[in-house]
Amino acid sequence: MSRKHAYYRGVRMAPYDLVKEFLVALGVVTLLVVILAAVLSSPDVRPLTLQSIATTDPQSYVQTALNELDGSSGISDYGPPYNNGTGAVQYIGPISIQQLIGVHIPVSTAQDFVLGPLAQVAPTNPSWKVALDRYNAAPARQQTAWTNAYNTALGKATESGPHLSVARCACGPVTTMMKAMLALGQRGAMDGLLLTNRQFYQTDYTRPLLFTADPDNNVVNARATSLHLLGSQWGVMNETGNYPGQAWLWLYSLFYQIPPYTTAWAANTDALAILSITVLSLVLLFLPWIPGLNRLPRYLGVHRLIWRDWYREEKQKAARTAKHNAEVEA
Amino acid sequence: MSMTRRTQEALASNLPYEELLPSEQPAYVHSYVYLFGVATIAGFIVLIATGIILAAFGPQWWHFSAVGHFFNGLHFWAVQAFFFFMVVHLWATFFQGAWRDGRGTTWAVGVITFLVSILTAFTGYLSQQNFDAQWIAVQAKDAMNSVGVGAFFNVLNFGQMYGFHIVILPIAVAILIAIHLTMVRLRGVVKPYPIDGTEVQR
Questions:
Q1: CB contact set of A125 (below 8 Å; sequence gap of 6+)
Q2: Nearest C-alpha in A relative to B64
Q3: What are the pLDDT digits (tens) for A276-306?
Q4: What is the number of domains present in chain B?
């Protein structure tokens, strides 16, 4: 006798058509999905491109490019896996797993986001080449003086549609370089230049996405806010256009909204949220072997509702047996 | 005895087909909550079928084809249905204490299936090639990087995420579902909690 048959000994068995049940379930689920797709469709908001950002908010775009160049952007000092900065390094207690793992996707923002792309196109424009050569040949202190001056001028700049007016400044070649960056961005060239690597085929969007979503870039945040996608708007659980998103991540998302994750642990929210959800997942995984918790369902009592027919039947059977025994004894 | 013969005998004694596909069940298997397990499998099959079509035409097809967009809609709602059924199944088995009587590993495999499914869906959202994918990628990178995972599982790398989504993770989920289902069939459905005088009050 198999282990299952031994387990079922004494239990009344009833015919059960598993194949029919499966086919009916498949039919019903398919029909449900077809109706939902036909009536509600699915979201597909076009992604932002560097071209669209450079066109709709040139000041923000140039500010990002400048920060990438002078090393003051959020990605410049991010830390592993992109570089050896510390800006985004997080800890669990005294340990930073992020730093232990180290740099695996090296990103030098000045070189990868500004100097490299400009070097690729500079031969096509003599003034860009002169500016780039002059910048590269200058000592670091001079470069910093130019970028600081341009930063001040950019703060007072005015924009009208895609046009950006930056007052004249003692910015050396940086003015020409930033004009070049804006021109490349608005013509769509930067989208390709940041994607380019040594291969012909491209599937890695790490650099364009890091540039696009740099914290200095207001356009992405503004777009996400208008589409109700920010963390405070439960963005992980929503998709664009009021569609449901990854609702099953509600518990993980919750950590980002409550203390101490938002207060005392704010500097390490991501790492501690991941740690918390890992611990809870392990509790769920090992629930059968955790004393106390493994007996919880019995005390919650929902099983009485699930098996109410069975319990009623068992009670009636017990009553009949008791009555029969009483009659036999009498 | 040859390896083939030994495999034959092991399968015949451990996985007899009448155990895998029984024609009767205990009388207590009589509640709508038992349907959510099979509904989850049905949802997974719809996901795989629509996913195969989307993969066959390429990741950009659904952005410019009305037919493609419809199939994306099917895939999108199938994942919502899949998770809805799976979560109800999870709660139902929790309330039944379905890990009792030596079924702990069946529960554990089910939980692992749930967690791997979450990762599968996550890589799907990253593979959409729209603003949602863009936003989720740039937000999620910080969480992945904070614990060192981002160095190897780069959410900004579309090619890597797409590969995980259409090959590695669906195969893992399919294998896990197969193991889970086999365990359920071989061990049978857990008995109701014993009557202690209170179970029949409702």
A1: A180
A2: A44
A3: 999 999 999 999 999 999 999 999 999 999 9
A4: 1
